[in-house]
Amino acid sequence: MKRIKYALAVHCGLIAVFLLQGCQTTSDGNKADPRKSAEVRTQIAAEYIRTGELDAAKRSLDEALAKDRYDPLAHMMMGVLLQQEGSPTNLAKADEYFKRAVSLNSSDAQIRNNYGRYLYQMGRYTEAAKEFKIAGTTLGYNQRAWSLENLGQTYLKLNDQVNAEKAFISALQVNPNSAIALYELSNLNLQKANYKVASQLYQNYVKVVGVNNQRAAALWTGIRIAHANNDNINLQVLVNQLRALYPDSQEYRNYLQLQYKTEAVWK
């Protein structure tokens, strides 16, 4: 799960982006619009989830659904809340809320993306890919690159490297600075022995994240690319960085074990 966890960290967890808005009071005898009330309570719940106040979020979402039981975003956010809590009982309940949200608004890309993330977490990768593909091909969706990154990582879980590569290329077309897409495409090209392409993608990845902000896995990718290109100077720089930053990592153990092995093992 480490790849999707990295994506989640980059994008601030499981929560859709909502702006907290004020709720106007009504004049005597006038009732607030139920839909608007549900919307405001859902936005408040999103902020509670962001700050880890899950019980307050649940109360706010209960109020939202009492105001408008057909509000798809309230159902989606309830699914996000239950997924965030993470117990087996609540994870099971989350599925029903996500399904209800999709049935109420099947064209909402944010709902599709969040449901896909839930399905990915549950190991239901084929279903997750379907949701990410819908979100990732919804023009105008402001997190479309994110959905395409998720789609690519899901295809990797399905051992479908061809479609994973297509998804990551699409993510770069939407966001040329997608660190996830650059990293994964570099790895995929390394595996195919396309060392020149892998090297360029890796260099672009380093430019995006910063030379001192690479994860152990990324440094290991850079090491293998440098080894394949007989770039011993850069290889040693990356090895030193891996040893200094991640001495207990599996990647550094890999280096120690494989440095005297055959070429095939390095790929």
From TrEMBL:
TPR repeats lie at residues 145-178. It comes from the Bacteria. Keywords: Repeat, Signal, TPR repeat. Residues 1-22 form the signal peptide. Pfam families: TPR_16 (PF13432). InterPro entries: CellSynth/LPSAsmb/PSIAsmb (IPR051012), Pilus_4_PilW (IPR013360), TPR-like_helical_dom_sf (IPR011990), TPR_rpt (IPR019734). SUPFAM superfamilies: HCP-like. This is Type IV pilus assembly protein PilF. It comes from Acinetobacter apis.
